[in-house]
Write a structure and sequence with these properties.
eight-stranded parallel β-barrel, dioxygenase activity, EC 4.2.1.118, 2,3-Dihydroxybiphenyl 1,2-Dioxygenase, domain 1, Xyl_isomerase-like_TIM-brl, single chain, oxidoreductase, nine-stranded mixed beta sheet, TIM Barrel
Length: 633
Amino acid sequence: MHTCIATVSLSGTLTEKLAAAARAGFGGVEIFENDLLACPLAPEEIRARCADLGLSIDLYQPMRDIEGVPDEVFAGNLRRARHKFQLMNRLGADTVLVCSSVSPHAVDDDARAAGQLAQLAELAEEFGIRVAYEALAWGRHVNTYRHAWRIVEAAGHPALGVCLDSFHILSRASAPEDLEGIADIPGEKIFFLQLADAPLLAMDVLRWSRHYRCFPGQGGFDVTGLVRHVLATGYRGPLSLEVFNDVFRQADAGPTAVDAHRSLLLLKEAAGTAELPPPVVPTGVAFAELLTPDAEPVTALLTALGFTRAARHRGKPVDLWQRGEARILVNTAATARRDGPRLAAIGLESPDPAAAARRAEALLAPALPRRRAPGDAPLDAVAAPDGTELFFCATGDPELPDWRADFTGLPVTPAPSATRSEATRSEATRIEATRIEATRIEATRSEGTRIEATRIDHLAVTQPWHHFDEATLFHRSVLGLTAQASVDLADPYGLMRSRAVSNADGSVRIALGVGAAPADDTAHAAHIALATDDVVAAARAFRAAGGRLLPVPANYHDDLAARYDLADDELETYRDLGILYDRDAGGAFRHCYTETVGRVFFELVQRDPGYRGYGAANAPVRLAAQHAGRLLP
């Protein structure tokens, strides 16, 4: 179906909005009147610009306070409408949106409203224009789609129909049967369908609409269910987005338009009107890649955490550090920023990397070009909304290329197509890596330190403030991950929002966060959480190896003693090591943090199998401690 977006949904000038909509793949736009009034181009020039961009102008909006008014007021309304219809002919738009009146002059008289709308439609028909009547959720007398349809039906004019708006309908709906009345409207009398989602908030509906709408799939409304009801009537007009949102009005129009179009593609998939490549849910984390201008601070931290430099990329300045199943790539390429190490890429294990890439590209995720030397493993990668690179990997799968084959000093399973020389080289690297790991284990044993299995428990990625909802939708739709409820975290400089996405077994967990902070803030850096079966032993080993742990105020552990019945020696151990504690119905969660290096830090976690959270209750304490910038010796 034809996709469309209202220009009010994007930031910038009208010409910038049109260009962004076209680049994102939309087929049409709704021209918001204020955008046209502020544009220096004549209506004919705007029409030509849209044609050049491949955009149709599907709606001109809005006309307000038209119907249900005294005759002398309506006469002025008709004069105003005539001017707008002439303008629309110059613009090339054939449908106008008329909102139900909020005028203090309006009277509660359906017959008068129907008669005046019929006169308006008669005038519109002279200009080849249709009138789409929409019930505003805060309309003075008409505020439901059922009521709007009754008036349109009573008017009985072929140039008059209804516009259905998901926000106005779903913000008032109290039960699913509230949508059933859509079936009473013939599809040909639904002239337009506007779509928006919204978080479920308890507030004045006008303020809710003006500031908190979002794209379908980013809020709590059943937009898909509404679309299915509308399509069942036979409606085949545009699916159009009309979103009022403070964030979108300040964010760059280009990424916002892409996010918007992605939401409509997903909506069409969910409603059964479009078929996309099916999601390929990742099955694990292959690696996390840190980009840094200076490897020393990162490698010192990794060494203290028990990682070993296991291999080096044969053609790039990238080292592979490994401990158990946890792999960290340290990239010292010239593109590294001067503000220190940052999380630049995540490798995701995939049962079908090529299919995962097809899904991502179908949903407008930008495919990333990759400089690849002959013999390098082919790796598909796309960019997440915040710029983090996502690689689709098949580590150790003998049927698929293994990214580790690009590194020397690491065992890999040769792909079936490998030549004998390639297999011989792989065997040599396997022997070398085995020797390195045996040496490390023996050295560690001689120091009396316990060897623990380690893997990446989760990754926490800080989002730009205007990409939070987009990031959630991206990870759900492109990667097929499931999103948990959004939570607010108290930070010394305001509130942070956090929302985790994961696969079914928890082998992939990504916590997306956003929040205001000082310009030099490092508390909101990305972090990598390493799972261990004994966080106390891991923390002690880290500190013994020269690592520095984040201190936790004594007040926290005093409160912990009040909230949980912990043994005195256990509590003292937590106090000494800065370990935090949380518990839910599924079990306990113990965790502590390392120093921050550049824009990244590590977390050591011990998670009971049934625990599903991320220690959110402890986040305010962690954030305050990081802002304080003090470290345990």
